[in-house]
Amino acid sequence: MPQFILEGILTVVVGVLAYGFIVNYPDSAAFLKPKERVFIHKRLAADGDASENEGFTWGNVRAALADPKCWLYCFGFDFMSLPLYTLSLFLPTIIADLGYSAVSAQLLTIPPYALATILTTVVAWVSERVGRRAPFLIASALTASIGYCILLAPQTLQRGRECPTWGHSSQPLVSIQPLDLC
């Protein structure tokens, strides 16, 4: 019980502090100087249609619900997030099933996530430089699918299952970043 309280306190403190720092729009940010507000408005105007604080309207909600691209993005993000979250919950169990102790299994989840961090950064940077995201999304989804298939192999085929764990665990993370940049 005390462990949960200690872990939860940090989340609550960060949440309370974030409430004071996260603002809806540059105009409501008391910590910005007028020159900084103008700069941010110019960046928003150059970046897209978010240059005006439009407020909430049901018409905008209807327009978003009627937009097929919005639905495709939602489904794409959900389908790419599903393996990410299932993996984060079950990777220690998968590694423990390979014959490692519980503590070792927890520690052995670190290298795949380190690889995923590096791959995510590299793929996001390269896809931005190339200006194409789809090939990277497809490649990472295919790699993750192959890794899943190998991990689903019968228990008698234990040899070589560590490698797909690395590739499989890094690819869902890699897929999310280019999709977020769309």
From TrEMBL:
Keyword Transmembrane (UniProt): yes
**SUPFAM superfamilies per the UniProt record, alphabetical:** MFS general substrate transporter (SSF103473)
Q: What cellular component terms from Gene Ontology apply here?
A: membrane
Protein name (Swiss-Prot/TrEMBL): Major facilitator superfamily (MFS) profile domain-containing protein
Example of a GO MF term: transmembrane transporter activity
Going by the UniProt record, its keywords in alphabetical order are: Membrane, Transmembrane, Transmembrane helix, Transport
Q: Which residues cross the membrane?
A: 6-25, 70-95, 107-127, 134-153
Q: How does this protein sit in the membrane?
A: Multi-pass membrane protein
**Pfam families per the UniProt record, alphabetical:** MFS_1 (PF07690)
Matching InterPro entries: MFS, MFS_trans_sf
Looking at the record's lineage, which domain of life comes first?
Eukaryota
Where found? Membrane
